């Protein structure tokens, strides 16, 4: 059941992050949006644990996952923008 909640929270975080930070070079589709949110949740959990906001083993919530997804989307936009310019 935990995996199902991670996917649901990841999808919601990915959708919210894409609404907050729209752009041309963002991943689209259900699967990529869900992956964006899940990776964002992992990024937020890792950064939160490194900064002492979360205890070891404690994951980020929806807001943390959205912030992590925005960070991942920003980094993705930087790399996707460089690849398009190089062509």
Characterise the protein shown here.
By secondary structure, the chain is mostly helical. Helices cover 76% and strands 0% of the residues. The chain contains three helices and no strands. The protein has helices at residues 2-20, 30-51, 62-86. The protein starts with a helix and ends with a helix.
Which key terms come to mind for this protein?
87 residues; 3 helices; 76% helix; 0% strand; globular; transmembrane helix; cell membrane
Low-confidence stretches: none
Rg on CA atoms, Å = 13 Å
What is the number of E strands? Answer: 0
Determine the structural class based on helices, strands and strand pairing.
mainly alpha
**Gap between N and C termini:** 44 Å
Element-level helix/strand string: HHH
The residue fraction in helices comes out at over 70%
Residue fraction in strands: under 5%
What oligomerization state is this entry in?
single chain
SS element count, helices: 3
Outline the biggest β-sheet. Answer: none
Q: Using the alpha-carbon principal axes, give the shape.
A: globular
What is the mean predicted local confidence, pLDDT?
77
Keywords: Cell membrane, Membrane, Transmembrane, Transmembrane helix
Pfam families: Transgly_assoc (PF04226)
Transmembrane segments: 27-47, 59-79
Main location: membrane
Task: Walk me through the topology.
Layout: H1 2-20, H2 30-51, H3 62-86
Helix pairs in contact: 1-2, 1-3, 2-3
């Amino acid at each position: 059941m935990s995996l199902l909640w991670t996917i649901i929270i990841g999808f919601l975080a990915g959708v919210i992050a894409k609404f907050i930070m729209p752009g041309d070079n963002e991943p689209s589709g259900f699967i990529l949006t869900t992956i964006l949110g899940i990776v964002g949740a992992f990024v937020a959990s890792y950064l939160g644990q490194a900064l002492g906001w979360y205890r070891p083993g404690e994951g980020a919530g929806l807001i943390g996952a959205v912030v992590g997804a925005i960070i991942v989307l920003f980094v993705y936009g930087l790399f996707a923008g460089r690849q398009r310019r190089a062509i």
